[in-house]
Amino acid sequence: DAELLMMAMDAANREVDETAEERKGGSGHIGKMLFSAGADALAIAAYIPEDKLSKLSCVDWLGSVAKDLGGAMQPGASPGSASALVPKDENKGRFPLKLKEEGIALAIAHLKGKGLFPDTPDSDDDEPVYGDDAFDDL
Question: Alpha-carbon dihedral of residues 117, 128, 17, 3, nearest 10 degrees?
Fold first, then answer.
């Protein structure tokens, strides 16, 4: 459900309440794309912080991923926030779980093509882990 995924995105971007028992949110300064594979469709939500909009737009980024997966943007898309749905197609063997992996690869490839994602050699043994500060100069 794209609406629920956008709610999760809003929660991730919320300012951290330092007085709360659990730390929640705090990632509003980082662009991201969230994927949720349901039984009938893959929901995707994208967010770009205002200070990064000169380099990337959700309409462009998510639009490209959704189109390549055979999906469509949902109404209300803006440069900073957008959602899309990609329906399953059993006749073509296109299922949400498989589409999710393909979508992640497409999203990263789009960012790499714009020079917005570190281009590191692939390895089966280790995955790079980036801290928040790794993307400060993007």
Answer: 60
